[in-house]
Sequence to fold (250 residues):
Amino acid sequence: MVGVTFFGNFDLASLAIWGFWIFFAGLIYYLQTENMREGYPLEMEDGTPSPNQGPFPVPKPKTITTFDGKEVVVPSPENEAAHRRDNLAMEKTETSEGFPQVPTGDAMADGVGPASWVPREDAPELDAHGHPKIQPMTGHEDFFVSAGRDPRGMPVLSKDDQVIGHISDMWIDAAEQEVRYLEFELESEHGSGKRLVPMTLSKVTPRWVKIASLHSSRFDGVPQTASAKQVTKLEEEKICGWYAGGTMYS
Fold:
């Protein structure tokens, strides 16, 4: 028999199970190190390298080409520095690491605490065809409100029940076919120009749209978009951070 004459008394079942465990351990090692291409090496709160980097080594830099032709090297100090904010207006409450820090100024304007944001790329998120995913609904004849209330034209109420503007448009994610932001025009006594509010932080009622996270005096500070036709990832970060910070600071 082949199993007797070729392998002798060798246990093939043992070979199979040990081969599986070795492969599985290697897979865990590979996945864990690949997961460390962003956010590593770890740093202390003051920006110095952390003495404890974990049980796995940081992988060697690899160049990744995105679908739109951009090349990103990860991990790399330049890539990490581009997504870091230094000299934040906060101070420690304790000398050791891991304790909360408190704002030293206007937390919403400084973008710290619940109002924090990260310096993402100042370019719009693109769909599979290379077009901006989030765009105003005006001009897209294929999109319409199929269910629920159309908020366009409704007044916008603040946390203190003041009418601060009126909804002028809805910004849609064309790829996902859903509303991401509501656009509203500010009343003159509360500022000027148009602003965006995340759909998830607004409540559409039969008579108005309620934004419960901001006091009327805070709407003029909502970050604006550079373009009337698209919103960049950095602008989204700042807009969402402003409304989120308002739940605590406004």
The longest helix spans residues 12-34.
